[in-house]
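Feature request disguised as a bug report, sorry. It would help if multi-protein outputs had a clear separator. Right now it looks like this:
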Amino acid sequence: MKFSKDEILFLIATFLFGLGLMLIILKGITLPARITEALPQKHWQIESIDTMKYSRDLARQGLNNLSYTSEVDKQVALIAGTGANYIAIDTPYDGEFLPVLKLWVNAARENGLHVWFRGNWSGWEGWFNYPSMTEAQHIAKTKQFILDNKDLFRNGDIFTACPECENGLKLNPGDPQQVISFRQFLISENTAEKEAFATIGENVSVSYISMNADVARAVMDQQTTKQLGGIVVIDHYVQTPQELAEGVAEIAQESGGKVMLGEFGVPIPDLQGTMTNEQQKDWIENALQLLSVNKDLIGVNYWVDEGGSTGLWNTDNTPKPAVSVIKDFYQ
């Protein structure tokens, strides 16, 4: 069959049009992947918000309490909405409070959050009128708790058995003998926790051991930091954002490890006095901006979501302006 010159030109034009259309479609299909690859990484590996005022302080009131259950669901959803990838849950590990701990953990799972377990045994600091306990009892009970509660944990979670553990011992960071003994306790418990998680087959980090910054400076020398996973976790409240950033940098250099901010937040009345909501927002924004350039800082946990002077939400769950800042950095 022969084609006229006009027919040939028409066929060529049709072919080129179809080819161009196909290229456009293919480009459109691959574009989202390229956009995804270009998205910036998170500022920190761990971006968390703490729930202590409800998950610990009101744990006993939360037992068999439907209004408490509803509040947990609301708070966890709000935290997830900031872009956080972790939630810090501070419910004690005693059997009495296990239903409350499970309530928080289940809500975290439903909202796609990893859990940083930051509870303790009530007897360590005398919470809820529990009797005191020894270091050996603490280690044994912690190991058994992990073995007995495999269903609580997921790969990627963090488990801290004794946040600010120095408080229960009334540790004097200026006493060399106390510091040596404290280091050994932390190492022994850390070893027991690793063994327990290996037994249940869950990849849960036990290297995030919160302590006050002054204690960290005394306890976490380079050898101890290495033995405890190369991470130093500081609960650090200071007057200015500059002091916060400088403290993180100093501890990273002194310890030779990476740093996690286990707790920070404003306002603390004894440090900053009272703040308006806008002043709180500005302080947090300045702090996170300064912290974001420090490559030795691997995570932050804002303290607290609701219920304290540093809260991000009011007690009716309405957001303060600072929530927008957390979202900007976490998302």
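(second protein starts here, but nothing in the output says so)
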Amino acid sequence: MTPSTMLPPGMKRRLKRLVRVYHRMFFRFTPADLRRALLQLGIVPGDVLIVHSAFDKFLGFEGGPVDVVRALQEVVGPDGALMMPTIPFQGTAVEYALGDPVFDVRQTVSRMGLISEVFRRCPGVVRSIHPTHSVAVWGKRADEIIAGHERSDTPCGRLTPYARLLDYDGKILLMGASASTMTFCYFAAEELEPRLPVPVLTRETYAMRWKDAHGTVRVSNVRLFARGIDHDLSPLIAELKRRKQWRQGRVGRVRLALVRARAVYDAAAALADRGMFVRKLVGQP
């Protein structure tokens, strides 16, 4: 039991209010401040940008999730593209698949944070069809980025928006989110699987149902990411920093990080050759 769980409910509410007041006094920032921080970090108009975020880290922010989305759209501009994973589960894909869900491209909620869920509902945003690893996209190339994801028999392979991120020399932005949320790394893992000491994907396929925008239910037989894989990306982040490819910043108390997808792939390939990218969890058979 932690000290916070021992507090009476009324005291916990007062404590939370004090925390919010503290951040508004000393770490207040506005949507304009966020835009400036993103530009200073290295995002430019025309970028193809995938974003991982945690809105609960935006303490002191003078706005809501919609304001974050607008700031991101304004930074990449109409000639760029904004992407966010809209994965519908937490935990492992295999556990999710065993629950026999039906992925509805219009209705299924994103479990990748509040900003991603708000983003997928925004005007002009389209969403790829995949039962486990869908992506929401806004911008000039949105339709071509999501095209064909439903035909992919793996979550993040060559027919997916994650591959297009590499094709378009895209960038990956973390806003208050940990490096472990970078779904592009799963594309790298799929591509590099023949060079890795452990299988990345399951041998068996899972029959998973999905519903398209017209309400038609179809079934895809997909291989999923294997259980028992170590998702610790600290060696990858260390390699990116060693190569001076990892850019960091801050707005308020929100930590920001930016990296090119190509740099991530190249660093992952180098680690794969040294047996340091994608390993089994200790104690797993």
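Even a blank line would do. Unrelated, but nice: The first strand starts at residue 48 and ends at 53.
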